[in-house]
Amino acid sequence: QSALTQPRSVSGSPGQSVTISCTGTSSDVGGYNYVSWYQHHPGKAPKLMIYDDIRRPSGVPDRFSGSKSGNTASLTISGLQAEDETDYYCCSYAGSYSWVFGGGTKLTVL
Amino acid sequence: EVQILESGGGLVQPGGSLRLSCVASGFSFSGFAMCWVRQAPGKGLEWVSGISGSGDNTNYAESVKGRFTISRDNSKNTMNLQMNSLRAEDTAIYYCAKALYGGLEYWGQGTLITVSS
């Protein structure tokens, strides 16, 4: 049950794109098409941004997109906006009603 | 509208016990897995425990296995987390979430557990 690996921080200027990576193993990220991404403002409930590796819940802007190759998933945020600045977490289903999160990435909009 | 509300948080001494509850509405509760996720102060999100829709299947993070027990009462749209032998490192905000395999779709606002003497 090792945590997925994310960069501790990423940054970009308004209007630019940033990508956050999430590396796991064949037992989680690479073993299922069930990676999800969450936006988490401190003190608030985490918000699902991407599920099933690439799908976007209704209401999430299409500036947010997910992808995956092998044991590494990625979240790309295009057209960066000031309100995107917060923490982002990846998560993967790991079988038998268990999930594993990444360590989290702090996004700074310069 | 989906609503999820946790309760039962508070201050407890090391070695003590606490029972968290999560009440959900706005969806067919018994049809979905649920889970608990926590965030310790200054730390990231950590999956704690999951339970199938029927309640027949459960799983736990290694950090809580043998100390925490997850359960659900589908007649009351409620999920519980019995936490025993609490440690300082269990101090965290505990979130309840509606779980799909592919993502934790809806979350509650969380309840704070503080383990301290």
Walkthrough of the structure:
By secondary structure, chain A is mainly beta. Helix content of chain A is 0%, strand content 45%. Chain A contains no helices and nine strands. The model of chain A has no long low-confidence stretch (mean pLDDT 96). With 117 residues, chain B is an all-beta fold. Chain B is built from no helices and eleven strands. In chain B, the strands form two sheets. In chain B, strands 2, 4, 5, 6, 9, 10 and 11 form a seven-stranded mixed beta sheet that branches. Chain B has a four-stranded antiparallel beta sheet with strand order 1-3-8-7, with no helix packed on it. Chain B is globular and about 40 Å long. Chain B starts with a strand and ends with a strand. Chains A and B meet through strand 3, strand 4, strand 7 and strand 8 of A and strand 4, strand 5, strand 9 and strand 10 of B.
Provide a concise account of the structure shown.
The complex is a heterodimer of chains A (110) and B (117). Chain A has 110 residues and is mainly β.
Keywords:
heterodimer; A: 110 residues; six-stranded mixed sheet; three-stranded antiparallel sheet; 9 strands; B: 117 residues; mainly beta; four-stranded antiparallel sheet
